[in-house]
Write a structure and sequence with these properties.
homodimer; alpha/beta; Rossmann fold; five-stranded mixed β-sheet; 11 helices; 2-(3-amino-3-carboxypropyl)histidine synthase activity (chains A, B); EC 2.5.1.108 (chains A, B); metal ion binding (chains A, B); 4Fe-4S (chains A, B)
Chain lengths: 327, 327
């Protein structure tokens, strides 16, 4: 697999906009490309660059205010598609396409698909979608591609916290992409089977066991009911800020006689929660922290929806996957 | 030991200033006081509070820009003394004094002091200094208390990165306080003996082995000389930003044919450096990261002074402890 960094386009953008100080932000898997990119920009333009060395987990995770104080006036953000954010500094997004050969995988996967299939993917692979749709059609497999909400740049694209492109009438999903992070979210969010076509590992696999996930969530809510003090986490990353919701939840908890506080956090880590010492937490920041990392934490962490079950405003049967959707 | 949180003063400040949204920041050792403090403020005033759940290692570590975007208009910062910073939001500092009985310790320590002694301490214990001076004088021990630079609020006070209060004509130092963090810095910075009077553990101990520290620093510089790519770390915490210096160092390294880039970082961690993949780093952020945590990192990290040795602008015998002083 090759990551094609559009270096000439980036140089062109910088020459046109003539910024004083440029920040380069890349997700973890591309961080090692930063040194060469920065070197090339400084050679070919007269601009100083700063590479962002902090983790970058998505288009929601834009370093903005903290760079404005340093005089940064342009952010080059690689590896994610644009989502609508109010940023202080101008951000130019470059998504990175991964080139791979899928012929073998498509032959394999057709045997596993028998009902109507929703095609989903991440930004790195969205360029493969039409070709896959065509080949599946040649094998008499019915497919549909959903259009997500305003956070979603391309048809069929999913984010870690936004599966609005799955809101279509299908029986199962075929996810084209690497890892289990996105398709796990789709399975938990939709309760439908998800088959993964992984171009990196060149393999087909399935997401199973969504029932077990739900059981764990119910157990976590039940555990949180025993709490006396509850910390409501307000994420401070640019695209993860749900301030109004965090304050509402705190006020609601107080009415139920919980001692509740809003806590700002840039990254949520087990150690930070341990230091604060609350009995339970409601996380309004990145939903995936709540779901994927629960076993790393000693105390129960709930989503906003689960908080509603906790205080009795939502029925236990109405458990929903927490997403950050944008109308 | 008792931490006296000046809760009435804090309530009074908030009533006077009538902010819309208050952030409460406490160092790690006091984080557990946050819940009660927030509860009291919200009960007694009509103000919403946000507790900062991110780590806070000093008065340099003010969350400011990232809170401005949330609408915070007053920061209550506990546990550190004020240092002069340009902040976007108004910050009110409350230092927290620790009450302890020192009579036994003073009797013990007089036996260990025979030359002229510089008295040093942290903000938590500065109120004890005059009494100790008096008692040592009664035992015929000569003492001096230095006045630090503009970052230093009280006579004899040291910070983790600023030992300007040690610039006095003495043979040894007596440090009143807990832990080894500050007195280790004093020993490395001054190369003079440091005796610790620890009110928490109720014990007297000494800092030894400063020679070994220097040897390790020389070894680290020698290792960094083999690097081909060097990352220059620019800390983004409010009081740790040395942007001009970071850019100067990058330019200097480039002249010596190193491939060098400036990297912004909020917190420096082994994993973040591993992701970036440089052969060595120069850290212009918190000096203590460079010194105290080296063994946690796989690659050599140097201070700005050590960088000068690396590129040949400073003599090897002229190794100095990196401090952030403020004229």
């Amino acid at each position: 697999m090759t990551h094609n960094i559009p270096i000439n386009q980036i140089i062109e953008t910088i020459k046109q906009r003539q910024p004083n100080l440029v920040s380069i932000q890349l997700p973890e898997g591309l961080k090692r490309k930063a040194q060469k990119l920065s070197e090339t920009i400084e050679e070919k333009t007269n601009t100083h660059t700063l590479i962002s060395g902090d983790p970058c987990y998505g288009a929601c995770d834009i370093e903005d205010w903290e760079l404005k104080k340093l005089g940064v006036d342009l952010i080059i953000h690689l590896g994610h598609s644009e989502i609508p954010l109010n940023t202080e500094i101008e951000v130019v997004y470059y998504d990175i396409q991964l080139e791979t050969d899928l012929n073998n995988l498509i032959t394999q996967v057709t045997k596993k698909l028998d009902k109507k299939v929703g095609l989903i993917t991440t930004i790195q692979h969205h360029h493969l979608l039409q070709d896959i749709k065509q080949k599946l059609s040649e094998n008499n497999i019915k497919t549909a591609i959903g259009h997500g909400d305003n956070a979603i740049a391309k048809p069929g694209q999913v984010l870690g916290c936004n599966f609005s492109a799955t809101d279509i009438d299908v029986d199962q999903y075929l996810y084209i992409g690497t890892g289990n992070f996105h398709p796990t979210g789709v399975a938990y969010s939709t309760n439908k089977p998800v088959i993964i076509l992984d171009p990196e590992k060149q393999e087909i696999r399935e997401i199973k066991d969504t029932e077990n996930f739900q059981k764990k969530r119910y157990a976590t809510i039940a555990k949180a009911q025993k709490a006396s003090t509850i910390g409501v986490i307000l994420g401070t990353k640019t695209g993860q800020t749900r301030k109004k919701l965090a304050i509402q939840i705190k006020e609601r908890l107080k009415k139920e006689e919980y001692k509740a506080t809003v806590i700002t956090m840039e990254e949520v880590t087990p150690n930070r929660l341990l230091q604060l010492g609350y009995d339970a937490y409601i996380n309004t920041g990145c939903p995936r922290i709540t779901y994927d990392d629960q076993k790393r934490y000693r105390k129960p962490i709930l989503t906003p929806n689960e908080h509603e079950i906790l205080v009795g405003d939502r029925d236990w049967s109405d458990l929903k996957f927490d997403e950050i959707r944008r109308k």
